[in-house]
Amino acid sequence: MTPWARKFALTVHLVFSLGWIGAVVAYLALGLSAVGAGDPATVRGCWTAMDLLGWLVIVPMALGTLATGLVIAVATPWGLVRHYWVLISLGLTLVSAVVLVLHMPSVSVAAARAQTADESELASLGGDLLHPGAGLVVLLLVAVLNVYKPRGMTRRGWRLRARKTHVISPA
Amino acid sequence: MAERSRDTGAGSGVGDGDRPPDGPDAAGVPRWVKVFGLVLAVLVVLAALAMLLGGGAHGPGRHLSLAPSGAVSPSPAVAAISPDAGVRARGQRT
What we know:
The complex is a heterodimer of chains A (about 170) and B (about 90).
Chain A: H1 3-36, H2 40-75, H3 84-116, H4 119-125, H5 130-148, H6 155-165
Helix pairs in contact in A: 1-2, 1-5, 2-3, 3-5
Chain B: H1 2-8, H2 31-53, H3 76-81, H4 85-90
């Protein structure tokens, strides 16, 4: 991959990944509003917005982050499984995306339920703060790993490096 | 100096820029990976315990009991914007 293409791929990846983080923060704001609002119309509006934001923004951002991250890892010297920070970032991102996609149907259910629920049922819906809250922590951890890139090569990375430089790899 | 250290990553303990550092990495699993793995294992165990003690049902269908008839339908907002059947199927169960 040429330097220009690498920078372009990185730019797209940053847009998706930071967009994912921003959208989750917005989702949490809506969830907190749903919990704190006393007005049923506001609560219903928040759940509708959460459902829309989730499916139309967060899920595409998550899938875009995963896809562009794979492209960058494979097409650059970092590789996909050579360095621990890449491997762990990939694992955390994959788990986050899978949990997100599996969780969203329950958000749709709750949002639909909110349209017809009375005040006591609305209160029981809560604000769906646990999953996005935990997800945000994971995404921030991945962001830290991606910026600091702590050193450490996997066994496969060592073998590939040894093959490349004709140096005996450590046991 | 900054350029050189960025190219080699020497002494920084971190990789920089577009490519891995050229200097040799220490053999074996780095300490930060071991600590991370330990913390992750503890969190997974805690989450599993929470799910087990919380009734065990943890999945997209756990809110189904909120629906009046047990049937699931997507929110009107999403259905209105995306009339595609695939979108409706997200909130539906047979």
